Automatic annotation (TrEMBL):
InterPro entries: A-crystallin/Hsp20_dom, HSP20-like_chaperone, Small_HSP. It holds the Pfam family HSP20. GO terms for cellular component: cytoplasm. Belongs to the small heat shock protein (HSP20) family. Forms oligomeric structures. It comes from Fagus sylvatica. Residues 38-143 form the SHSP domain. The keyword Cytoplasm applies. The keyword Nuclease does not apply. This is SHSP domain-containing protein. PANTHER family: HEAT-SHOCK PROTEIN 20 FAMILY MEMBER. It is found in: Cytoplasm.
Length: 143
């Protein structure tokens, strides 16, 4: 029996593996164990949302992605949408895979922005694998 239950199902072992089942991926590589052939998406994209007096700031760790592979969109109803895709490595005929733990696939996150967000002034930048989206706020109206 495993000390941590596998979220992907499959074979139970007596080895304590803190990463087992916590990093879903897409794989069709033939020499990977059957339990690893589960299809999933790259949903582990963590995003921080911080509000300062001037803006709402979103930060996402997206290592290995280029800015061209990430979309930042504003939808109706003040919704900020961040999406993208990480492709898996190409299988080479002579390669022998021992482990695949890095996630691949599509991700999509949506955030409903508050009334004070200036939707027409959203800025996004990507540096060292960190996406930063800044949504300025309207100044508070003084009575």
């Amino acid at each position: 029996m495993s000390l941590i239950p596998s979220l992907l199902g499959g074979q139970q072992t007596n080895i304590f593996d803190p990463f087992q089942g916590f990093f879903p991926f897409t794989s069709t590589i033939s020499n990977v164990p059957t339990s690893a052939h589960e299809t999933s998406t790259f949903v582990n994209t963590r995003i921080d949302w911080k509000e300062t007096p001037e803006a709402h700031i979103f930060k996402a760790d997206l290592p290995g992605l280029k800015k061209e592979e990430v979309k930042v969109e504003i939808e109706e109803g003040r919704v900020l949408q961040i999406s993208g895709e990480r492709n898996r490595e190409q299988e080479e005929k002579n390669d022998k895979w021992h482990r695949i733990e890095r996630s691949s696939g599509k991700f999509l996150r949506r955030f409903r922005l508050p009334e004070n967000a200036k939707m027409d002034q959203v800025k996004a930048s990507m540096e060292n694998g960190v996406l930063t989206v800044t949504v300025p706020k309207e100044e508070k109206k003084k009575p």
